[in-house]
UniProtKB/TrEMBL annotation:
GO terms for biological process: peptide transport; transmembrane transport. It comes from Proteiniclasticum ruminis. One of its GO terms (molecular function) is ATP hydrolysis activity. InterPro entries: AAA+_ATPase, ABC_transp_ATP-bind, ABC_transporter-like_ATP-bd, ABC_transporter-like_CS, Oligopep_ABC_C, P-loop_NTPase. CDD domains: ABC_NikE_OppD_transporters. It comes from the Bacteria. Belongs to the ABC transporter superfamily. SUPFAM superfamilies: P-loop containing nucleoside triphosphate hydrolases (SSF52540). PANTHER family: D,D-DIPEPTIDE TRANSPORT ATP-BINDING PROTEIN DDPF-RELATED, TRANSPORT ATP-BINDING PROTEIN. Signal peptide: none annotated. Residues 9-263 form the ABC transporter domain. Keywords: ATP-binding, Nucleotide-binding, Transport. This is Oligopeptide transport system ATP-binding protein. The keyword tRNA processing does not apply.
Length: 339
C-alpha cells in the first residue's frame, strides 16, 4: 500500500434495515438492523477484508454498496474520477453506468452461471450491455479474459457443468472483470472450494489486483483466508464494525474482546501463535432486537456496567504508527491509563 491513499468509496453512517411484517395486514412490527450505522473509507487499490460470524451483516453491506440491496440510510460517496457522488441518490441512468465500475464474485459460481448457456453466452451479456456489439469483438475479449484467469480461450464454447468448482469460480472472476471494474466485492468467493484450489484462486485474485489496479472488498468467515489476502480488516458484529486495522496490526495487536475470541480459533490451529482458544458463550443476538449498550455485552467476559448502557463509539488509536479503530469501553479505559 502506498502512503498517500486515495479514497475510492466513502461510507458515512450506512444503514440497511429490513422491515419485519406480521398479521394479515402485514403491519411492520420491527426492523432487522442488518447494517447499522457503518462509516468507513475504502482506499483505491486495497483489499478490505470484512469478517464476522454469519448474520453479522457483512454480505448485506457488500450488496448494499453494489446497490443490489437498497440501503435505508447514510451516504455512499463514490469517487468518479475525482468527483464524489452519493450512489444512493444517483439517477437511475447514471447508476446503470456506475455498475460497470463495481462487480461481484459470488460464493457459488454454479448458481451464478446459467447451466443452459455456454460460457461465451454468459460472459457476452455484460459486454453487450456496455456496448460491445460485434460478436467477434466479444469472442476476442472473452478469450483474453479466460486466459487472464489461467483458462484456455476455446473453453468459452463449453457449458458450466463441464468445469470443476475452481474453474467455474475462475469463470465467475472473468465475468466480473469483463466490464473493467474498479472494485470487486468477493462474497465468500473461495469458501466453497477445496483448500488447495482456494490457494490458487486467492493467488489469482492477488495477481489480477496488481495487473488491473483493482480494489477488493473481501467478505469471508474464514480468518486464515482473510489474513492472507487483506491489506486491512474490518471485524463486524451485529451490523457494526467493532474493530478495523491493517491486517498485520490486527493479528498482532487485536484489541476488541470479540476479535480476540474470533481469532483465537485459528491461533489454536497454528500452535506457534501460542494463544488459548476463547469459547464464546451463547448465540449471536437477534439483529431485530439487539442488546442495549455494547451489543456484544451478553457474551463478553469483560462486561462492565457502562457496557450495558452506553454504546461504545468506534475510536481511533495509533499503535506503533498504525491507525487502529476499536469500539469498546474497556479498550478506551486501558488506552487512557497508558496515555
Ligand atoms: Fe466487552 Fe464492554 Fe468492550 Fe463491549 S464494550 S466488548 S461488553 S468490554
Amino acid at each position: 500500500m502506498e502512503n498517500k491513499k486515495e479514497v475510492l468509496l466513502d461510507l458515512k453512517n450506512v444503514k440497511t434495515y429490513f422491515p419485519v411484517k406480521k398479521g394479515i395486514m402485514k403491519k411492520t412490527v420491527g426492523h432487522v438492523k442488518a447494517v447499522d450505522d457503518i462509516s468507513i473509507e475504502i482506499y483505491k487499490g486495497e483489499t478490505l477484508g470484512l469478517v464476522g460470524e454469519s448474520g453479522c451483516g457483512k454480505t448485506t453491506l457488500g450488496k448494499s454498496i453494489l446497490q443490489l440491496i437498497p440501503a435505508t440510510g447514510g451516504e455512499m460517496n463514490y469517487n468518479f474520477d475525482g468527483n464524489y457522488k452519493n450512489l444512493r441518490t444517483l439517477p437511475k441512468k447514471e447508476m446503470d453506468l456506475a455498475r460497470k465500475r463495481m462487480q461481484i464474485v459470488f460464493q457459488d459460481p454454479h448458481s451464478s452461471l446459467n447451466p443452459s448457456f455456454t460460457i461465451f453466452q454468459s460472459l457476452s451479456d455484460p459486454l453487450k450491455k456496455f456496448g460491445v456489439e460485434k460478436k467477434e469483438d466479444r469472442r476476442k475479449i472473452i478469450g483474453d479474459l479466460l486466459e487472464s484467469v489461467n483458462m484456455r480461450a476455446e473453453y468459452m464454447d463449453r457449458y458450466p457443468h463441464e468445469f470443476s468448482g475452481g474453474q467455474r469460480q475462475r469463470i465467475g472472476i472473468a465475468r466480473a472483470l469483463s466490464v473493467n471494474p474498479e472494485i470487486i466485492v468477493c462474497d465468500e468467493a473461495v469458501s466453497a472450494l477445496d483448500v488447495s484450489i482456494q490457494a490458487q484462486v486467492l493467488n489469482l485474485l492477488k495477481k489480477l489486483k496488481e495487473e488491473r489496479d483493482l480494489t477488493y472488498i473481501f467478505i469471508t468467515h474464514d480468518l486464515s483466508v482473510v489474513e492472507y489476502i487483506s491489506d486491512r480488516i474490518a471485524v463486524m458484529y451485529l451490523g457494526r464494525i467493532v474493530e478495523l486495522a491493517d491486517a498485520d496490526e490486527l493479528y498482532k495487536n487485536k484489541l476488541h474482546p470479540y476479535t480476540k475470541a474470533l481469532l483465537s480459533a485459528i491461533f489454536v490451529a497454528e500452535p506457534d501463535r501460542k494463544t488459548k482458544r476463547i469459547i464464546l458463550e451463547g448465540d449471536v443476538p437477534s439483529p431485530m432486537n439487539p442488546p442495549s449498550g455494547c451489543s456484544f455485552h451478553p457474551r463478553c467476559q469483560y462486561c462492565m456496567e457502562v457496557c450495558k448502557k452506553e454504546r461504545p463509539e468506534l475510536k481511533k488509536y495509533v499503535i506503533e504508527g498504525s491507525d487502529h479503530y476499536v469500539a469498546c469501553h474497556l479498550v478506551e479505559q486501558e488506552m487512557k491509563k497508558d496515555a
